[in-house]
Write a structure and sequence with these properties.
167 residues, mainly alpha, Four Helix Bundle (Hemerythrin (Met), subunit A), 77% helix
Protein backbone atom coordinates (compact mmCIF):
# COMPACT_ATOMS: atom_id res chain seq x y z
CA UNK A 1 0.00 0.00 0.00
CA UNK A 2 2.85 2.38 0.80
CA UNK A 3 4.32 1.91 -2.65
CA UNK A 4 1.04 3.03 -4.27
CA UNK A 5 0.97 6.18 -2.12
CA UNK A 6 4.64 6.78 -2.96
CA UNK A 7 3.95 6.55 -6.70
CA UNK A 8 1.00 8.92 -6.38
CA UNK A 9 3.16 11.51 -4.60
CA UNK A 10 6.01 10.91 -7.05
CA UNK A 11 3.71 11.58 -10.00
CA UNK A 12 2.44 14.77 -8.35
CA UNK A 13 6.03 15.89 -7.67
CA UNK A 14 7.08 15.32 -11.27
CA UNK A 15 4.00 17.11 -12.65
CA UNK A 16 4.43 20.05 -10.26
CA UNK A 17 8.16 20.27 -11.04
CA UNK A 18 7.30 20.46 -14.73
CA UNK A 19 4.81 23.18 -13.80
CA UNK A 20 7.60 25.12 -12.10
CA UNK A 21 9.55 25.05 -15.33
CA UNK A 22 6.76 25.46 -17.89
CA UNK A 23 4.35 27.95 -16.30
CA UNK A 24 4.81 31.49 -17.59
CA UNK A 25 3.42 33.31 -14.56
CA UNK A 26 6.11 33.36 -11.83
CA UNK A 27 3.52 33.31 -9.04
CA UNK A 28 1.91 30.18 -10.49
CA UNK A 29 5.38 28.69 -10.80
CA UNK A 30 6.06 29.43 -7.13
CA UNK A 31 2.75 27.80 -6.16
CA UNK A 32 3.73 24.70 -8.13
CA UNK A 33 7.01 24.74 -6.20
CA UNK A 34 4.99 24.81 -2.97
CA UNK A 35 3.18 21.68 -4.13
CA UNK A 36 6.55 20.03 -4.79
CA UNK A 37 7.72 20.88 -1.26
CA UNK A 38 4.54 19.56 0.38
CA UNK A 39 4.61 16.31 -1.61
CA UNK A 40 8.27 15.81 -0.74
CA UNK A 41 7.34 16.25 2.91
CA UNK A 42 4.69 13.54 2.47
CA UNK A 43 7.37 11.29 0.99
CA UNK A 44 9.52 11.91 4.07
CA UNK A 45 6.59 10.81 6.21
CA UNK A 46 6.45 7.60 4.18
CA UNK A 47 10.14 7.11 5.04
CA UNK A 48 9.33 7.44 8.78
CA UNK A 49 11.12 10.78 9.06
CA UNK A 50 8.46 13.07 10.53
CA UNK A 51 10.93 15.68 11.78
CA UNK A 52 12.44 16.11 8.32
CA UNK A 53 8.93 16.32 6.86
CA UNK A 54 7.94 19.04 9.32
CA UNK A 55 11.18 20.90 8.67
CA UNK A 56 10.56 20.60 4.92
CA UNK A 57 7.15 22.22 5.27
CA UNK A 58 8.18 24.91 7.77
CA UNK A 59 11.49 25.92 6.22
CA UNK A 60 11.04 25.40 2.49
CA UNK A 61 7.30 25.65 1.91
CA UNK A 62 7.01 28.32 4.59
CA UNK A 63 10.03 30.58 4.83
CA UNK A 64 11.96 30.06 1.59
CA UNK A 65 8.89 30.05 -0.64
CA UNK A 66 7.57 33.21 1.01
CA UNK A 67 10.96 34.79 0.34
CA UNK A 68 10.68 33.73 -3.32
CA UNK A 69 7.20 35.23 -3.58
CA UNK A 70 8.43 38.41 -1.90
CA UNK A 71 11.21 38.73 -4.47
CA UNK A 72 8.82 37.99 -7.35
CA UNK A 73 6.34 40.62 -6.20
CA UNK A 74 9.09 43.15 -5.55
CA UNK A 75 10.78 42.72 -8.93
CA UNK A 76 7.58 42.63 -11.01
CA UNK A 77 5.31 45.32 -9.55
CA UNK A 78 3.39 46.04 -12.78
CA UNK A 79 0.08 44.20 -13.03
CA UNK A 80 -0.16 41.49 -15.61
CA UNK A 81 -2.36 42.10 -18.58
CA UNK A 82 -4.92 39.37 -19.00
CA UNK A 83 -8.46 38.30 -18.36
CA UNK A 84 -8.11 38.52 -14.59
CA UNK A 85 -9.62 35.74 -12.50
CA UNK A 86 -10.13 32.29 -13.94
CA UNK A 87 -13.63 31.46 -15.14
CA UNK A 88 -14.23 28.65 -12.68
CA UNK A 89 -12.18 30.11 -9.82
CA UNK A 90 -15.18 30.74 -7.56
CA UNK A 91 -16.53 27.23 -8.14
CA UNK A 92 -13.16 25.69 -7.29
CA UNK A 93 -12.83 27.92 -4.24
CA UNK A 94 -16.29 26.89 -3.02
CA UNK A 95 -15.51 23.22 -3.67
CA UNK A 96 -12.18 23.30 -1.82
CA UNK A 97 -13.62 25.46 0.97
CA UNK A 98 -16.44 22.96 1.47
CA UNK A 99 -13.95 20.09 1.49
CA UNK A 100 -11.89 21.92 4.12
CA UNK A 101 -14.95 22.51 6.32
CA UNK A 102 -15.98 18.85 5.93
CA UNK A 103 -12.48 17.72 6.86
CA UNK A 104 -12.45 19.96 9.93
CA UNK A 105 -15.84 18.60 11.03
CA UNK A 106 -14.61 15.02 10.58
CA UNK A 107 -11.44 15.71 12.58
CA UNK A 108 -13.36 17.29 15.44
CA UNK A 109 -15.94 14.47 15.37
CA UNK A 110 -13.28 11.76 15.35
CA UNK A 111 -11.50 13.41 18.27
CA UNK A 112 -14.72 13.30 20.30
CA UNK A 113 -15.24 9.57 19.64
CA UNK A 114 -12.80 7.35 21.59
CA UNK A 115 -10.79 4.89 19.54
CA UNK A 116 -11.64 1.19 19.93
CA UNK A 117 -9.50 -0.55 22.53
CA UNK A 118 -8.30 -3.25 20.16
CA UNK A 119 -6.18 -0.77 18.18
CA UNK A 120 -4.46 0.83 21.16
CA UNK A 121 -1.75 3.44 20.83
CA UNK A 122 1.30 3.39 18.64
CA UNK A 123 4.62 3.29 20.45
CA UNK A 124 6.22 6.69 20.86
CA UNK A 125 9.14 7.67 18.64
CA UNK A 126 12.52 7.79 20.31
CA UNK A 127 12.77 11.06 22.23
CA UNK A 128 16.41 11.62 21.36
CA UNK A 129 15.91 12.24 17.64
CA UNK A 130 14.65 15.81 17.71
CA UNK A 131 16.76 16.60 20.76
CA UNK A 132 19.90 15.25 19.08
CA UNK A 133 19.23 17.25 15.90
CA UNK A 134 18.60 20.43 17.91
CA UNK A 135 21.71 19.89 20.00
CA UNK A 136 23.87 19.37 16.91
CA UNK A 137 22.31 22.36 15.14
CA UNK A 138 22.96 24.76 18.00
CA UNK A 139 26.38 23.43 19.07
CA UNK A 140 28.49 21.84 16.34
CA UNK A 141 26.70 23.46 13.39
CA UNK A 142 25.90 26.85 14.88
CA UNK A 143 28.28 28.74 12.57
CA UNK A 144 26.84 27.30 9.30
CA UNK A 145 23.33 27.90 10.67
CA UNK A 146 24.08 31.55 11.38
CA UNK A 147 25.91 32.02 8.07
CA UNK A 148 22.85 30.70 6.22
CA UNK A 149 20.55 33.09 8.05
CA UNK A 150 22.94 35.97 7.30
CA UNK A 151 23.05 35.03 3.58
CA UNK A 152 19.26 35.02 3.41
CA UNK A 153 19.14 38.44 5.08
CA UNK A 154 21.76 39.86 2.68
CA UNK A 155 19.85 38.43 -0.31
CA UNK A 156 16.63 40.05 0.86
CA UNK A 157 18.31 43.44 1.42
CA UNK A 158 20.02 43.14 -1.97
CA UNK A 159 16.70 42.54 -3.71
CA UNK A 160 15.19 45.57 -2.02
CA UNK A 161 18.16 47.75 -3.04
CA UNK A 162 18.03 46.53 -6.65
CA UNK A 163 14.28 47.03 -6.86
CA UNK A 164 14.46 50.56 -5.42
CA UNK A 165 17.10 51.61 -7.96
CA UNK A 166 14.75 50.76 -10.83
CA UNK A 167 11.82 52.61 -9.34
Amino acid sequence: MEIVVFYIFAAIVVAAALGVILLRNPVHSALALALVFVCLAAMYVLLNAPFIAAAQVMIYAGAILILFLFVIMLLAPEPESGAGALRFQRAFAALFGGALILELVLVVASAAIPAPAKFGFLPAAPAGDVYAIGKLLFTDFLLPFEITSLLLLVAMVGVIVLAKKKA
